[in-house]
Amino acid sequence: MNGEKSIQIKSSASALYNNLSVLRIAPRCLTYFTVVHANVVNMVSASWDGLNFSHRQLQSKEGNIAASSSLIMQASWCVLPSRELLVLTSQKGIQMYESDGSIMVYWHALDNPETPTVTLPKTQTFIERISSGSVLVFDIPSKGSNVMLSEVLEEHRDAVTDMASECSGSLEYMADLVTADDSGLLCVWKSGEDFQLLHKIPGFDVSCSSVKLWKGTVAAGYGTGQIRIYEAVTGIVHAEVNAHARWIYSLDIAPFSGLLLSGAEDSLVRVWHLTMNPDANSVEVEHLYSECITDTQICGAKFCDGDGYAFAVTGYDLSEIIRYTQA
Amino acid sequence: MSMRTLPLLFINLGGEMLYILDQRLQAQNVPTEKTSKVMNDIICTLFSKPFMEELFKPQDMYSKRTQRAVLIRLAHSSIMRLNQASMDKLYDLMTMAFKYQVLLCPRPRDLLLVTFNHMDAIRAFVSDTPAILNQVEETYQQLIKVYTPLSDGEFQLLRQTLLMCFQDLQIRVSAFLKDKVQTCSGRFVLPLGGPVPCGSEVPGLIRYWEACRGQEVCHLFPSGGAYCGALPEGSFHMSGDRVITLGTNISVYSAAVPPSKPILALQMSIAPNLLAKEELTLLSHLLGSLENQDPDKTRTFYRVNLFTVDMEEEYGNCELSFQVLNIQAAKDQQAEEELARIVGEFTEKGEPSSSPRSKGDDLLTLMDELQ
Q: Which Pfam families does the protein's record reference (chain A) (predicted)?
């Protein structure tokens, strides 16, 4: 991989799981990045020619007006069929903005939340999880701010750490959503009028910090530094990788190529390739390469495009987003 | 974020403070009985029942301002009086040492072992004083009761909360630089090798299953590091081999003098503190309990300059990058008056002062450093 010019951000990344979100805006040849620092979200938009960067900072809010010092747990884009929303979750509530962060669309108060968000594109909903283990499902209208809480999924007993929706774009897979918690338990769901629990994959008390769902396959990153690949609906373990020497903070999958990206506290980012082998009912995992961000505990690692041609990395106390592209 | 950070924060920072003071007081040939008195007084205050009870209540982290005020008051709960420069340097050293320990902890749960390392050393300091020893033993029990049931995920959240507190703090410490534990830019060195944490495997192995053939396929990949087998589990009991050495009394502080200016400083604009009133209530409660430990107000005080001018070193060879800071503290008049009432009972002259004006001076010194 080649290192590309890194992008400076206004303040350093906080040590939070999955602390980088990327949104590619093809019609405008732009990519947006967000990185959380305490009670502020740093947003950068980068033009594809690498010449123009613009910065914006969003602060957590209470209600829809007052600036707040409450800490932001995560900022990420939710890509829905008709719109994209930037969702911030803080200790006090959830704020949804238009994708460029310019206008707040909705605010929802919560007691003691802790969250990542995920979208299910086909159903126009998105989901929050909170530290009690509950998962909230919201219906999002295609326009406007009439957002409604439609369901609460109560299957986890420990704090939910990450969630992922099926990202292959194909409708042939039964599982739509996987949720992960601090005990390592993975719950696999099917969306519909009501969400239906398909399977529970036990965790053996090893915290799962990051999870992805691709072609009916779950990739999960754990506190022990292991990555495990499961068949979503049955929970069968396809593969186990002793991937990192420290806690994994971030996983990402490039859906068009089957590349898997992992970033951990050991300062390493690793790129893997997943090959589905339906005849043998197996998933092969191959290590492609690793990059070291010297003396930095990685907290966010994301592909910048669906092929995995480029990826970006953030680290604790680092005030830049480091980017790599294929040579 | 975690509501259980305060006991770990103050016990570990307090522990580092004691290591530094012990080292520096001995290095400056302060008589042993005075050093012991200083150490005993600080330990007695830190482990006092009301103070610990307050800390152990589940609550958000204090603001940096409050943390610092409490630690300064703790340092001055003994007969020792530090001038402003010494206090600043002591605070910088303590904080960077603990930041290092939090960052380098192999597993989040090992943060508790780091705490026990500090506690073990503190216990040794007061082993001859049964009353204080008893307080320390009770705190051990409280730590075991509250923290051992927490899951790994909860410990990681606790660690992340502490890391947020120390974010962007990159003051270079000469001893860390010399031992190559810190780089010239102020970042701590993360080694790509050594033992993996307890419960982890050495990276390098991929295993996948071909279900239809019923066989397991193994591949190796280059880990990029020199890792070796996991550490054994340390003891989470009242005593025992903790295994982890972070938090033990390393002799780094013998020559430790941070450069006179922080090289990479924080970008911090302190917005009007919405929680100021609640924090002040807490602070007054805490410091009120500290003040009650001090019945004898007619003691004479021992002034110490911890870090002498001779010891300042130069780092001309390092490539430095400067970021100039703008720190703006919102002047909260009410907060100033309230803090003036609570903190700074004693001035640098070493006499208890009853005039409001000198209490204000002490406070203003504290507030000035936020400017």
A: WDR54
